[in-house]
Each structure stands twice: as structure tokens, then as C-alpha cells.
Amino acid sequence: MNRFSRKQFLNQLIVLVSTLSLFGGESAISGKESKPVPKTIPIPEGETPVSENEPTAQALGFHQDAIKTDYNLYPDRKLPEAKNQFCATCSQFTKINEGWGKCNILSKGLVSNHGWCSAWSKRY
Ligand code: SF4
Questions:
Q1: What is the pLDDT of residue 40?
Q2: What share of the chain is helix, strand, coil (3-state, %, to 5)?
Q3: 114 near 40, Cβ under 8 Å?
Q4: Contact, 95 vs 88, CB < 8 A?
Q5: Is residue 1 located within the same domain as residue 51?
Q6: Same domain, 14 and 60
Q7: Helical ranges in 23-119 per DSSP H
Q8: Which ranges of the chain would DSSP assign to H, the alpha helix?
Q9: How far, in Å, CA of 85 to CA of 116, rounded?
Q10: Alpha-carbon Rg of the chain, whole angstroms?
Q11: Residue 115 Cβ contacting ligand 1 at under 6 Å
Q12: What is the mean pLDDT of each run of 10 residues along the chain (124 residues)?
């Protein structure tokens, strides 16, 4: 590869990366659900996350990261109108910090902002 073509390649790579980031990165390629990139916010000291294996959590299909939702069981969660359904937007959620909150239903610990379960209802 000569010097000129390497420069062209790098320029095209920069344009491609910039374009993908404008249109949602991976989701633009794969068509996967677009969601906020989870930030790793430490759970407040002395608190524990709700266990996804807890019986009520399992019965509701709860996951601390909504992307892990079983879409075979909850196909509506994959619909475009459900893309903003997360614990942080749920009426049962009370914010504790930027990453965690308390759920009125799953009360044995904290739920992540990016969690979801089938009891989600829009906060007004
Ligand atoms: S009820 Fe709402 S806040 Fe509680 S786990 Fe389900 S989606 Fe999250």
C-alpha cells in the first residue's frame, strides 16, 4: 500500500466512523435496540442490587440491563414504542443516584436505571 492510498483509506475510515456515530453506532449496522449507553455508576454504599434470580424478579422477567430481556417472552418490549422503557422511566421507580433507584415492586435492593421488567408503567 503506498502512502497516498493509506491516506485515502484513513480519510474514508474517519468518515465512516463519524457517520456511524451520528446514526447510533452499532444499532445503525445491526438494527439492534437503541438505548442509552449504560454508565457504570457505583451502587450506593451499603446497598445491594435486586437479584435477577429472586422469585418475583424472575416472574416479572426483570433484568438489571434491559437489553437482556427475553424477547420471546416479552415481544412488546422490542417494539419501537417501547424503546424508552427502563426502570428510570417507570412509575414504580424512585431515583437514588444517577445509576440506581428503588422499585416499589422489587424492594429487596436497588434496580439499575437501565433495568426493565414486565410491570413497567410510564411515569407521569
Ligand atoms: S416495576 Fe418498574 S422500576 Fe420496578 S423493576 Fe419493573 S420496570 Fe423497573
A1: 82
A2: 35, 10, 55
A3: no
A4: yes
A5: no
A6: no
A7: 26-30, 55-59
A8: 3-22, 26-30, 55-59
A9: 7
A10: 19
A11: yes
A12: 56 44 38 53 95 98 97 97 97 97 98 98 94
For ligand 1, whether the C-beta of 106 sits within 6 Å is: yes
**121 CA closest ligand 1 atom index:** 2
Q: What is the DSSP letter of 49?
A: B
Substitution site in 92, 94, 108 for ligand 1 pocket (most atoms within 8 Å of beta carbon) = 92
Residues 24 and 42 in one domain: no
Pocket of ligand 1 contains residue 66 by CB under 6 Å:
no
Distance CA 97, CA 81 (A): 26
pLDDT of residue 12: 58
Find the 118 Cα to ligand 1 centroid distance in Å: 8
- How many domains does the structure of the chain reveal? 2
> How far apart, in whole angstroms, are the C-alpha atoms of residue 48 and residue 44?
8
